[in-house]
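S.,

Sequence below, as promised.
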Amino acid sequence: MAHGLSDAEMKKEYFDAQDKLDDKLDKLAKWIKESKHFIIFTGAGVSTSTGIPDFRSAMDTVLPTGPGAWELRDNKTARSKKAVVVHDMQKAIPSLTHMALVELQRRGILKCLVSQNCDGLHLRSGMNPTCLAELHGNMNLEKCSNCGAKYLRDYDAAIGLLNHLTGRKCDKPECRGPLKDSIINFGENLPAEELDKAFTHAQNADLCLVLGSSLTVTPAADIPRTVAERKKKLVIGNLQRTPLYSMATLNVHAFSDTIMQGLMERLDIPIPPWIVRRRVRVTQEKSSNDSNCEILIEGRDPDNTDIPFSLFKSIQVNRGEKAIEKITKEPFIFGIASNNSEPLNIHLEFFGHYNEIPFDLNYANVDSMPQQEEFYLFYNPMIGQWRKTTKSDDFPL
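The prediction came back faster than expected:
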């Protein structure tokens, strides 16, 4: 069973004076510009500003989220009602840190992000999964125990069972294997594919920045250790001192958001706003006699079209002025006569974690629908508008 930090000295929180912090960020920005293979390693501390508590912050922490979950448990007490926490992690909005990391990855500066977090915020923020190693799983991801197929969900896929079974089955007709959540519990082996990716990048890295990790959990903590042991630069950004404190080239004592905001200013790279990213596929298949057609609406991973993504709470199908069908669970399939000349409206209702408004797909008639179309829907929660586009980076302002 995991516990909070037992050493009182390790629980203390430190903050660099502004002049010292400026000097450290100047150095780090210079190293990033000079780096050939820059990686970042994140822990729970990158998500506390989104309202998600961490695990090991002390009882007297300055964090608005309050003490860490295991610190509370060790002290047999409950979280204060004054703590600023989000009670549904699906509603957590990616932080400045999350979005800064996305922009560094998009520009090719960040080669790999290794994460201990399972809150799903790195993928939700827009981080390309090819550059991400999620060592402890993702609450929105489940996998087939037979064929290994992946499924993303816009809800918590884990239901807390020790055998990880979610009760859902693989979509592939030839498989139909049981799906399992991807969360890694204490004592369980880390996913080999993710671990191999992380260590490969650690072996090539000339600079590793750690953000918000206590670095007390192995084998995850061995990844930044590998960089230090290779005599390459290891920079640790954390309020508490870590077991790798003496091995680090530089220790920065500041909030993750403070570090990343200062870094991006020095790199002269704007931090992009967060946008809800969705990819939708619409497929039309006619019957053998062409008298009817079957229409399938499905979500897909914005970065990997091969991975299904559960996006819709329900779909309402309207023909002309008439509502003909409401579908409330996957697969979202409906049939319609091929020769129907009435306008067709498909009303997409999302889970609404960020108060997303529904989106309407409108077609002049069935015949005007393409056999298959795939497009992006981008939603800016600050202005409450969707943008439909075929370009993966055509974000709304």
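Residues 8-139+183-267 form a domain with the Rossmann fold fold (CATH 3.40.50.1220).

Coffee later?
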